[in-house]
């Protein structure tokens, strides 16, 4: 069994202890390209959200249009994960950045150069399909490459950095796009053009600096064969009851934050209470991810950190739901008054993401690791769609008590699944496809 070496220039034995040259530089380039791409791309998304359907009465159509992006990601991410295993991680990564750049540039004619016409929603929907495909290829390839360059002593820390960089790009790009458009009065087309150039710059980083990670190509395997092998893996099946409920709550939290900070159509954060809430959520969460990931790697343990993160994240989702008014909207002063509790729960919630991703990387078979992270991303993207429905919609229709019951039930399901998990073995798992062939 052989693995493709960096750049595809040769092969190295699959069992060799040799490491590719400059893994830290490779990781740095991956993180930098991710930050640049996410920042530039989501500055463009912020513009689109502001320009299209600005009338609150069109909220349904706006929500429907912006659902195209995560839906396209969910429907294609499994394919791109398998593609990472079949032909390579870097090729998939280059495609992700290139198609995202194309989507951002094509947003410009789609909005009629600042004056949306009757065809604009349909054109933008097409661009969001491309955007979703780019996001799918991006997350599956990058997570797989980070996992390839990680071991049991540093996997959680490197996954934490990926999450932090992604979050920073999302928040920074979205915020910069809104401030440029609303506060500084920059033309939407100019912001989109700058965003497109930014994503193109990330393409250059990927092409020039990022190098292929060692992997075992499986070109003779079909996408369905790879997906079926992963879905049938008992270790992956046992993870689903743990991940699905948490990611549904995560999707609700994301939709809540969007409604709180940017749902009004003005600047992302426009008052002291909102600044206090944002700081109470983001600061402790990021610091906890850094600290918890380091402790997880040092202790060689994942489950305790997943348990703490699960309980705190569930509590945080419930706390946020209590601030939603039955008539719609958020009681910002009430939520801001509970900032010490937000800080505590956010810090605890930060323990879950790096430990959960590290656990997945620990148990993933090397020959289907791309497919494994693709399947995970399907679950993640589904949570972003289902979570807001379970949370925001039911909270408005049935009241906060309904979501409280749902949240507690989801936490219970996830906790029960976590109890059935075993800590990963210290040694990498054997080939899954080879075992099936045998």
Walkthrough of the structure:
74% of the residues lie in helices and 1% in strands. It has 17 helices and 2 strands. It has helices at 23-51, 59-66, 68-86, 89-110, 120-148, 155-183, 188-208, 223-231, 234-261, 272-299, 303-321, 332-336, 339-349, 352-363, 369-398, 400-420, 432-437; strands at 2-4, 11-13. A two-stranded antiparallel ribbon has the order 1-2. Strand 1 (2-4) and strand 2 (11-13) form a beta hairpin. Helix 3 (68-86) packs across helix 8 (223-231) and helix 4 (89-110) packs antiparallel against helix 5 (120-148). The longest helix is centred in the last third of the chain and has 30 residues, at 369-398. It starts with a strand and ends with a helix. Mean pLDDT is 85; it is low at 1-21.
- Main structural class: mainly alpha
Q: What low-confidence regions span 5 or more consecutive residues with pLDDT below 50?
A: 1-21
- Looking at the structure, the CATH topology is Growth Hormone, Chain: A
- The counted number of beta strands is 2
Q: Nearest-angstrom radius of gyration?
A: 21 Å
CATH architectural designation: Up-down Bundle
Following the backbone from N to C, one meets helices and strands in this order, namely EEHHHHHHHHHHHHHHHHH
- Number of H- or I-type helical stretches: 17
Shape: globular
Task: Kindly provide the name of the CATH class.
Answer: Mainly Alpha
Count of individual domains: 1
Helix residue percentage? over 70%
Strand line-up in the sheet with most strands = 1-2
Instruction: Identify the CATH homologous superfamily.
Output: MFS general substrate transporter like domains
N-to-C span: 14 Å
What does the largest sheet look like?
2 strands, antiparallel
Per DSSP, what share of the residues sits in E-state strands of 2 or more residues?
under 5%
Mean pLDDT: 85
